[in-house]
Amino acid sequence: MSIKDWATDDRPREKLLKRGPGALTDAELLAIFLRTGTQGKSAVDLARELLQDFGSLKALLSADQQRFCQGHGLGNAKYAQLQAVMEMARRHFKESLQRGDALTSPEITRAYLSAQLRGYSYEVFACLFLDNQNRVIQLTELFRGTIDAASVYPREVAKLALHHNASAVIFAHNHPSGIAEPSPADKYITDKLKQGLALFDIRVLDHFIIGDGEPYSFAENGLI
């Protein structure tokens, strides 16, 4: 059955306009992106098949060009369109935290850090430098690869913070596994960095772990 034959309130596009994007399933959101299905299949049917094929929406969105184009009904044009949409999202959140803007919304901070760090196949550890009024100075990627105590150097972090004349920092790193829970190493590194930066009167406001769902906040869970 074509989507045009569905009840109006069940059609993904109309449902989004009436109830907002949060009301849609992954398949319905993907169907709006696909726009059309294939012979005998609606866009929603095709979206469900693609999600089953890739395993998850995250896997589909982070697939490289070759793997993405292997999906039924996909190709270079859809890949280019998806990359453009994702880059626009990253730039949107980046503009929300331009240099000199104060951090007044935890939601924007989470969304921005998620857009920047989610999707990597390896760990990335970054630092958001802030002035004494919690205004953004710069987001800097500090380390790549497996994050452990041996790869994070408080002296180097402090050196960058002093270079930017930062009064506070927010750390963030991603978990490629998608599980946004802190490991013992994550907790140890955070404490080590907090103690090292305290010597220079630089505050650590939070440390976010970016996974598949809501980012984990050290501050909100009493770990800072």
TrEMBL record:
GO MF, one example: metallopeptidase activity
Domain of life: Bacteria
Protein keywords: Hydrolase, Metal-binding, Metalloprotease, Protease, Zinc
Pfam family, one: RadC
Domain MPN positions: 102-224
Biological processes, Gene Ontology terms: proteolysis
NCBIfam families xref list: PRK00024.1, radc
Family indicated by similarity: Belongs to the UPF0758 family.
Protein name (Swiss-Prot/TrEMBL): MPN domain-containing protein
Organism: Methyloglobulus morosus KoM1
